[in-house]
Design goal:
By secondary structure, the chain is mainly beta. The chain is built from one helix and six strands. Strand 4 and strand 5 form a beta hairpin. It starts with a strand and ends in a 9-residue tail after the last strand.
């Protein structure tokens, strides 16, 4: 059974969260060029936030944070480790 993560009372698998990000990326003017990028799960911190690494073949990348309150922070530059 695939591990699930609880976000605001709802359980999601990593693949479900990646699918949500893929749905949203094309509609985000600033980040739409990442729509076909590779997305991989990195870690969950003590507060329950999840972090994903998004990278394109040309070397462009960004970190994405999904907070426990369901907010997605694109191009996260804050702290990742607890």
């Amino acid at each position: 059974m695939e591990k699930t993560y609880n976000i605001n009372g709802t359980s999601y698998t990593v693949n479900e969260l990646i699918a949500i990000m893929r749905e949203q990326l094309p509609g985000l003017k600033k980040y739409s060029h990442f729509a076909d990028a590779e997305i991989e799960f990195c870690r969950q911190n003590k507060e329950g936030a999840l972090f994903f690494y998004v990278s394109k073949d040309n070397g462009e990348d960004m970190m994405v944070k999904i907070g426990p309150e369901e907010t997605i922070y694109w191009d996260w530059t804050g702290q990742v480790l607890d």
